[in-house]
Design a protein that fits this description.
The protein is an alpha+beta fold. Helices cover 42% and strands 20% of the residues. A hairpin with a 2-residue loop joins strand 1 and strand 2. Helix 1 packs across helix 2 and helix 1 runs parallel beside helix 4.
Length: 137
């Protein structure tokens, strides 16, 4: 076994832990939610890589079920949702009469397709700037 065989798994766990810390810093109200370290996997060039990932639990909902989301996915989702111009999309569709399809790409978030390093770096900058949010979308 190579001494670097678990490097990828350690990187995944580190990104997940950083995302959890940034999520709590950006959303102080989430500190009371349940976080847990869950196992996950993905296919790589050299086979399946198993790693641990921090998740946040929301619930119980109307049916009494608890939902689990990756902390990194929550950061990414929040960034996309808050930088997409939904009002601009609605206005452009109204002007077009809703019957003509319009190009909505100019209204989309510039963070779509950004790398994990860019997203983590930007969220760190937001935390340093003192940005906090009251609620989660």
């Amino acid at each position: 076994m190579s001494r670097h065989s678990h490097t990828t798994a350690r990187i995944e766990k580190k990104i997940s832990k950083t995302a959890k810390e940034l999520l709590i810093a950006l959303f102080p109200s989430l500190a009371g939610n349940a976080f847990s370290l869950e196992s996950d996997s993905f296919k790589s060039y050299h086979g399946t890589v198993y790693h641990d990932e921090w998740v946040i639990w929301f619930g119980p909902d109307y049916w009494g079920e608890w939902d689990e989301y990756s902390c990194y996915f929550q950061l990414y989702s929040w960034l996309i949702d808050n930088t997409t111009d939904f009002e601009g999309i609605m206005k452009a569709n109204e002007e077009a009469g809703w019957s003509v399809s319009i190009d909505e790409t100019p209204f989309y978030s510039p963070w779509r397709g950004a790398s994990r390093a860019e997203i983590i770096s930007h969220c760190r900058d937001l935390v340093r700037a003192g940005v906090t949010l009251d609620r989660m979308k």
